User: What shape does this take?
Amino acid sequence: MPKTRNTATAPANLSADEIELLLESIALDHLFIETLVTQHNDRLDFHDVSVWGVKSALQAAFDAGLRAAGGSPKQAVQRTHKATATHRISGNGSAAALQA
Assistant: This one.
């Protein structure tokens, strides 16, 4: 029986260091976050980011995953369900869903 690769830890022959560099590059390019290392300082560890920045970063990560799997980036993705809830931010900073 052939061995299966753990693609969660090493997609398409990328080392852990290369994956870390890729993630840091996406964070810097799309979210303007300079490091993904925990600084133990709220001012340095929490960032305000735009929704379009989050979308752009997610798209870049998705595209990188497709390339790592041998696919082509920017493939259309179908939404599987329609969001019917609105969200509010609770006092502790977490998002809570409210039924529409």
Confidence is low (pLDDT under 50) at residues 1-10, 96-100. DSSP finds three helices and two strands in the chain. The first helix runs from residue 16 to 31. The two ends are 51 Å apart (CA to CA).
